[in-house]
Write a structure and sequence with these properties.
Distance between the termini: 66 Å
Shape: elongated
Number of helices: 5
Largest sheet: 6 strands, antiparallel
Helix content: 25-40%
CATH superfamily of the largest domain: Protein of unknown function (DUF541), domain 1
Order of helices and strands: HEEHEEEHEEHEEHEE
Radius of gyration: 35 Å
C-alpha cells in the first residue's frame, strides 16, 4: 500500500515537471509584416528575329526546288549587301511534299505536283535595316513572313534593374505600414521574386508614308515601340514595436 502511494506521487510529480517544461519552452511568435513590390523599366529593343519563308508549287519537283533555291540565294545575297553578320543568318533544310487529288471514279489518288518550302532565319542587330530587309525580300520573291520578334540583348540586366526597383518599392510599402502601426522595420526574413518582359507591338509601317516613298526609301519604314521589363517581389520583414511614447 505504501509503495503504491509512492508510485502515484512520483507520476504526479513527473507530470507537473513536464507541464512546467512545456510552458517554459513556448517561444514568443515573431512579429512580421509581408508586403509586395513592383518595378518596371522601359527600353528600346535592339534586335529583331525575322523569319522569311519561300514556298513554291509546281507540277515538277525540280521546277519547284529551283524556284525556291533561286529566291533563297537572292535573299542571302541581300543580307550580305546589307552587311548583316552572316553568323546571324541561318537557312533551314528544303521541305518537299508531294500533293495529290482524289479521283472518286477511279477510287484512287493522283499526283498533281509538289510543294517545296524553305525558311531563312535572321537575327538582326541593326533595326535601322529592318525596313529594307523586309521590303526587298518581298521584291525578291519571299512569300511567307512571320511577324518580327523584337528583343533586347540587355534583357537580363534590365530585368535585374526592374527587380531592384521592386525591392525598393516593397521596402517603402513596408515602412508606410509599420509607421501606421507605431512600429519599425527589422531585417527582411524572406524574399520571393519573379521577372519578365512585355514585348513591344509588332513593328508597323509608318502611317504617313506613301507606298512610293517606301519603295524608294524603306530604311525608316518600320518603327517599334518600347519594351517593358518588370519585376515583382514578396518580402517578409521583422516588425519591431516602438517603445511606449516613441513615435
Amino acid at each position: 500500500m505504501t509503495f503504491r502511494t509512492l508510485q502515484l506521487s512520483t507520476a504526479a510529480a513527473c507530470a507537473l515537471l513536464v507541464s512546467g517544461w512545456a510552458a517554459g519552452a513556448e517561444v514568443e511568435r515573431p512579429r512580421t509584416i509581408s508586403v509586395s513590390g513592383q518595378g518596371e523599366i522601359q527600353a528600346e529593343p535592339d534586335r529583331a528575329l525575322v523569319t522569311l519563308g519561300v514556298e513554291a508549287r509546281k507540277p515538277k519537283m525540280e521546277d519547284a526546288r529551283n524556284e525556291v533555291s533561286k529566291t533563297v540565294d537572292a535573299v542571302l545575297k541581300l543580307t550580305r549587301d546589307l552587311k548583316i553578320d552572316q553568323k546571324y543568318v541561318r537557312t533551314t533544310r528544303v521541305n518537299v511534299q508531294p500533293e495529290y487529288n482524289w479521283d472518286n471514279n477511279a477510287k484512287e489518288r493522283n499526283l498533281i505536283g509538289y510543294f517545296v518550302s524553305r525558311q531563312i532565319e535572321i537575327e538582326l542587330r541593326d533595326l535601322d535595316k529592318l525596313g529594307q530587309l523586309m521590303e526587298k525580300s518581298f521584291d525578291l520573291g519571299v512569300n511567307s513572313v512571320g511577324d518580327p520578334r523584337l528583343d533586347s540583348t540587355k534583357r537580363r540586366d534590365l530585368e535585374r534593374e526592374a527587380l531592384a526597383k521592386a525591392v525598393a518599392d516593397a521596402k517603402l510599402n513596408a515602412e508606410a505600414v509599420a509607421k501606421a502601426a507605431n512600429a519599425r522595420l527589422g531585417a527582411p526574413r524572406t524574399i520571393s521574386a519573379s521577372s519578365g518582359f512585355v514585348p513591344p507591338p509588332v513593328p508597323m509601317m509608318k502611317a504617313n508614308m506613301a507606298r512610293a516613298e517606301m519603295a524608294s526609301d524603306a530604311a525608316g519604314s518600320y518603327q517599334s515601340g518600347q519594351m517593358g521589363f518588370n519585376g515583382n517581389v514578396q518580402v517578409e520583414y521583422d516588425l519591431i514595436p516602438n517603445e511606449p511614447g516613441l513615435k
